Amino acid sequence: FLSFIPWWYIMNPKELINFLEKLISDNLNISTMIWGPPGIGKSSIVASAAKKAKIDFIDLRLSQLAPTDLRGLPVPVHPEDNDKQGTSKWYPPEFLPRTGEGILFLDELNMAPPVMQGVAQQLILDRKIGSYKVPDGWKILSAGNRKEDRASVFEMPSPLANRFIHLEVEANYESFKNYAINKNIAEEITAFLAFRPKLLHSMHIDQKAWPSPRSWEIASNLFKHQLPIDIAVGEGAASEFNSYINVYKKIPNLENILKGKGKSISFPKQISSQWATTTGLIYRSKSAKEVKNVFVWLIDNATPEWTQLYASDIVESFKTQGKLSELAKVVMNDETIIKYFKDCLLYTSDAADEEDSV
After folding, report:
1. Whole-number Å distance between alpha carbons of 42 and 35
2. What is the pLDDT of residue 350?
3. FRET partner for 142 with CA separation of 20 to 30 A, picked from 178, 249, 274, 357?
4. pLDDT tens, residue by residue, 167-177
5. Residue 7 burial by CB count (10 A; 0-12/13-18/19+): exposed, middle or buried?
6. Which residues fall within 8 angstroms of residue 4, CB to CB, at 6 or more apart?
7. Is the separation of the CB atoms in 149 and 38 below 8 Å?
8. From its phi and psi, is residue 314 left (phi > 0), alpha (psi between -120 and 50) or beta?
């Protein structure tokens, strides 16, 4: 399983979750270090993997701990224990796991000072510290920012670095979109980032606010309460988003399309409006019947790439909600939809055969 992984492997959030799920399901206790820029959601990704595997999750911010916080406190041996008079025991902190299965996540590892990294090193390499031992069902994962991110990081000791496999995660719109739909992030923001994916993560070290997956989630809450979002994502990104909102106001009546009353409604011609319309329909399709109505409308009015985009995203959304069988029963009984996808498969197959012959 690990043979394909070089010493440094770059992944998007979805790939990282799949990788972590494999580590968990195959019970591989391999020390893993996740690198990535601030605001990309490293801790959220690890927490999601633990939640999906139905195991516990403990998030420790090492930069906020002192060595005694992790090692525990020395306590004199009880006077009645004559064999060990004049010695002390280390009482480990209560937040370290004792039983069960889970992920012990050591976040901000390289922001912790060297003395703290030294204490963490024993926990990571030996799976124990003082009298405390990590239960067999627990995996230790770590994360940190890179030097180029201008974070206040310390050099990781070579012996510690050499014990890890190193993964780097980078921002990815498709992964963010799946997360945004499930977390009910404002559809206007998701549609805007589909149109301007480079603004999903654009770090400006000379500015206090700049766009990242984390700051866009904050911006969504501000936008929903009619508050300015520049305080979350910066003036440049906010200015572009505000201009895009004017586009969003001119998209077709999506509610009529969802109700099956879209025969007189045309698919927009501008690319920005096309993204806004398709994203809005993905967000608002809550029932299998609404999905069927949208499919029929897209098949009649839009080009295949937009229908296929809607199809892939809506299937992922219903799968996450555990409603995929309900969707299949309704959609796959519609002759128009069945014929459309059969024609798409034939077209794709013919195109592939033609490419192979060339």
Report:
1. 8
2. 39
3. 178
4. 999 989 998 99
5. exposed
6. none
7. yes
8. alpha
**Helices and strands in the chain, H and E counts:** 16, 10
Residue type, 330: V
**Distance from C-alpha of 227 to C-alpha of 225, rounded to nearest angstrom:** 6
Model confidence, pTM: 0.76
Helix (H) or strand (E) holding 307: helix 304-320
CB-based contacts of 283, cutoff 8 Å, min separation 6: 181, 187, 190
Residue 306 CA to residue 345 CA, distance in Å, equals 16
**DSSP class of residue 268?**
P
Q: ∠ CA(184), CA(186), CA(192), 5° rounding?
A: 130
Burial class (CB in 10 A: 0-12, 13-18, 19+), 341: middle
Q: How does DSSP classify residue 251?
A: S
Outline where DSSP puts E strands in the chain: 8-11, 32-35, 56-61, 73-76, 88-91, 102-107, 128-129, 132-133, 138-144, 165-169
Nearest CA to 140 out of 103, 180, 99, 188 is that of: 103
pLDDT at residue 206, rounded to an integer: 75
Tell me how far apart the alpha carbons of residues 107 and 42 are, in angstroms, rounded to a whole number: 9
